[in-house]
Amino acid sequence: MNRQSRGARGAILLSALLLGILLLGGCLRSGGKATEDRPADGEPKPIWDFKYDPPITITTAIVDENRPNAFKPGESLTDNVHTRWMEENLGIVTKFDWIVSKFEDADTKIRLALAVNGKLPDTFSADGVILKDLLKADKLLPLDEAIEKFAHPKLKEALGKYAYTLTEVTKDGRIYGLPQLNAGDEGTVMWIRKDWLGKLSLAPPTTIGELEDVLKAFSEQDPNGNGEDDEVGLAVPLKEGPWSWMGETDAIAGAYSKQMLSTYDIKLFWNEDGNGSLVYGAVHPDAKKYLETMASWMAKGYIDRDAGMQDASQAAELAAQGRAGVMFGPFWMGAWPLGDAAKADPGAEWQAYPLPAGPDGRRGKAQKPLYGIYTVFGKDFENIEAWFAYYNKLLAKNFGPDDPYFDPRFAQGYHEGYDYVIEDGKVVTVNFEAEGVPKNRWPLEDGSSMDMRWMLYPLTGGAPALPYMNSDAIEKLLAHSDAEVKTPIEQGIKALNSTQLEAAGLAISERGLEIPNRYHGPLTDGMEKHGAYLEKLATESYLSIIYGEKPLSYFDEFVAQFYKNGGDAITKEVNEWYKENKP
């Protein structure tokens, strides 16, 4: 995030503070009123301190998947410590219009509401075809005025800097949704078993050629020392193609080309060709170089033969079991899953290394998308200011007491006995038994930590975050590990183990290698009609080449099939959008 001058930032925060006091002190359209009590000295209440009286209700909907460790016995999604806290302290009641177990069921509920002109929840998440249909049906609340009046200054700053995140929810010049922003600091690093490098007298690889030598040694020289031929060099999930949330091979593609690859999502990755037009990276001729390398490694036994059936978590099991020595992925992998390797081998030591260069010295990786799904609001929602008041409180939790929206009641955590326990004056959030917390005061009977996400974020669709908001804290604590921790972000970074922190610093240092997706428009008509087939075609074609079932020359036949079966239409639509929205 760009740093503003101290004076400009102060002016923005002061303006937001004064505006918020006026807004929260006035009558709401619902008939509720934010309390107007003033301290004895007559000063206005701080912006974080509000309560709607009488209480207001905000309706939402949620996909309630498997959520272990989310609630204590007797509590539920609809009645828990946080829902009660919100009503008692904020005057906000959360009501669920529906709770379903599958995303498809949520889509069905929305489609049914659209078909019968039924009422939608006040706020819910949407993307893809559903989002497109909602916009077409004019069922969403425009947000331009609300963003200007009520949004946290840091959120407004991010939406201005990353304005492309709004294009999919912009219609006729108006904004109809908020992107659920990601921190975006999970760019790929190369993880390698450092102890295996030492055992086999290998230097850390700096090029693709050197990486292949390491993969060969790890696959053939029994680095785990069990006397069995059960190792592979690279742990990688190929079930979902080159791009995933963990175990991705974007760095292999980036060593050969500026074209980034995804076969599992028709909206990722669209890159510029030599003429300034966008092309789907998976059909660009440069993808052959990636496929040639991956096919060679598969044929030589450097990749597990089951990789084509494995997702990211399954691939990670090879690394955790001491059966693979290289895996690409985010900085946090240094704790889980790679940290689990010490269970099988106490001497296991994973370390992050710089990405390898290709034959021409090129290095590259994918920019993790900074947004995905959107938070939208029903057209008849009358309490948008209350939603922002709650969202701002959660966002400010990241930035600590200096943020005017920071609620000091959350200074230690959200709820004592849930996400933290105070023992002998110390805040304990994990390892309760080791920290001497009596068993009857553990958040959960088995001593594990509670997953508070389900309590805290039903109205916001997830934990509020801003792009690259962790970077300053990572750099600060890398430079001075004993530096004073002043914000919850810094507390979170401080909690990383040394392996993770070093990897996070490496990821930041290589941010300039990131290749972004250039298409940020809506799901086009062609994508809606042909996307699922083309994704399947691309993923299966890549697998057939990597497994050697088809020769590398089959790539050209795949590309022809791609364009013949809807790829031409989609490429035309994407480039028509790009002409109007090119930065």
TrEMBL record:
UniProtKB keywords: Signal
InterPro entries xref list: Bact_solute-bd_prot1
PROSITE patterns reported in the protein's UniProt record: PROKAR_LIPOPROTEIN (PS51257)
SUPFAM superfamilies: Periplasmic binding protein-like II
Full protein name: ABC transporter substrate-binding protein
